[in-house]
Write a structure and sequence with these properties.
The protein is an alpha+beta fold. It has eight helices and four strands, in the order H-E-H-H-E-H-E-E-H-H-H-H. Strands 1-2-4-3 form a four-stranded mixed sheet.
Length: 179
Amino acid sequence: MLFTPSFSENEIIHFAGLMAAFLKAQREKFSQTAEPLPLAKREVLRPFFSDAILNTTLFCRTQDEPVESPDFLATLHERGVEFSLDPLHAVTFIDVIVSYKPLEPRVEFHELVHAVQYQKLGHKQFAYKYMKGLLNRGSYEKIPLEVNARTMDEAFTKNPSQPFSVEQEVQRWINENKF
């Protein structure tokens, strides 16, 4: 079935507000037990990320179950938008990355890209751009913020000895209005 966007700008703003509140609440909840990335992993990622991101982003493992999806996703599902947090290996809540199983380096990298996106956009603008991407494009895979993170995690996985600046690449996407 072909997805046809049917969300007004006011609806996108409404759902983005709900998402922003959810992100902030989850960040507060999980930050209590989150820990910094181990030093050895930070060293591997240093050619790609600033110390500001590597030293302040925290990681938390839940008790073997995915993060609970927010209530407003049921409304989106009723409107034809298929999205759930259940299949995700990890979720970034501003500067706290939550997973329910050990993460592969590629997933850690991907989630750290999201931490950079939050840092540059702020959590409210991130929520707006994420919801706008989801509601206008109809799938997780097509959300520009996810495309950006996936493009970089693929480059990292393909050649981890070829450094690049995630911050510069995220900023380039912002400057070119790709989100």
